[in-house]
Design brief:
Radius of gyration: 25 Å
Pfam families: BPD_transp_1
Structural class: mainly alpha
CATH architecture of the largest domain: Orthogonal Bundle
Distance between the termini: 43 Å
Helix content: over 70%
Number of helices: 12
Keywords: ATP-binding, Cell membrane, Membrane, Nucleotide-binding, Transmembrane, Transmembrane helix, Transport
CATH topology of the largest domain: MetI-like fold
Domain ABC transmembrane type-1: 76-264
Number of strands: 0
Strand content: under 5%
CATH superfamily of the largest domain: MetI-like
Number of domains: 2
Transmembrane segments: 23-41, 82-102, 114-134, 140-161, 207-231, 243-268
Shape: flat
Largest sheet: none
CATH class of the largest domain: Mainly Alpha
Family: Belongs to the binding-protein-dependent transport system permease family.
């Protein structure tokens, strides 16, 4: 009996339990730093007796967020709608155009410089023109946000499609695979991590583009976004309310990044090294 016990293989540790300390560290370390910063901020405001119309403390900002939640949440939904639509359009057009670039070198050389022009042109400079040319305010905001979010997806996906292993390409051609089979079974899986990386970048950029466009448009009323609420609070010297709107903008950007990171992890965790947790880091 003892020999059977001694000869039995030892049970391997569960991956979930092995990753638990690292998972706790990922959550606790940022939380502790954030609490220390907020506590120091509140102490500085109270110790120096800084008036709230110059620099409100975290408690005053939280109170303003709760008090004006009805108005701010409605504006948040408007900004989220513009951001989500812009990101969706940027992802679809960026992927399709990147596939066209990968299939034809002439198409890439002809159109890629114009994509670069869109990227390097400041959205603040062209947003007033877009708002003037487009009669629909919602559509003009969507175009501005799309312009900002479009290029990272196009650029990253194009790099991914062109990074396919040439040995595998030769193997596919040796077996007589069609161009569609090469694209669907080889090039697109190779480009998937690049596409998702560009998507994570474009998520935050789409939000920035929507906010900047709302600043330029300056539209009020029920259909106004968070940028207008920031301007409105600034005009009325309601600085805690302004900071509350800024907290919503920052929180929305963080939520978008985390959601897209989770999507990337779910799609890549079973086959790509970037999401499989390999390697040791300290």
């Amino acid at each position: 009996m003892s020999e059977a016990v001694e000869g039995a293989p030892s049970e391997a540790p569960r991956p979930g339990l092995a990753m638990a300390p690292e998972a706790w560290l990922r959550v606790l370390a940022p939380v502790v730093i954030g609490l220390l910063v907020l506590g120091g901020w509140e102490w500085l405001v109270r110790a120096r007796e800084i008036p709230p119309y110059i620099l409100p403390g975290p408690i005053a900002i939280a109170q303003a967020l709760v008090r004006d939640w009805g108005t701010l949440s409605a504006s948040l939904l408007v900004t989220l709608k513009t951001t989500g639509l812009a990101l969706l359009v940027a992802a679809a057009l960026g992927l399709l155009l990147a596939v066209a670039f990968a299939q034809s070198r002439i198409v890439e050389l002809s159109l890629f410089p114009y994509a670069v022009i869109l990227q390097v042109t400041p959205i603040v400079a062209i947003a007033p023109l877009i708002i003037i040319w487009v009669n629909d305010v919602t559509l003009s905001l969507l175009i501005c946000a799309w312009i900002v979010a479009f290029f990272p997806i196009l650029s990253n996906t194009t790099v991914g499609l062109n990074s396919t292993d040439h040995n595998l390409l030769d193997l596919f051609r040796l077996y007589g695979a069609s161009r569609w089979q090469v694209l669907w079974r080889l090039r697109l899986p190779t480009a998937m991590p690049f596409f998702l990386a560009g998507l994570r970048i474009s998520g935050g950029l789409a939000l920035i583009g929507a906010i900047v466009a709302e600043f330029v448009a300056g539209t009020g009323g029920n259909a106004s976004g968070l940028a207008y609420r920031i301007l409105e609070a600034g005009y009325q010297l309601q600085i805690p309310r302004m900071f509350a709107a800024l907290v919503l903008v920052s929180g929305t950007g963080i939520a978008i990044f985390l959601a897209l990171s989770l999507l990337s992890h779910l799609l890549l965790r079973r086959w790509h090294e970037s999401a499989m947790g390999g390697g040791e880091r300290r």
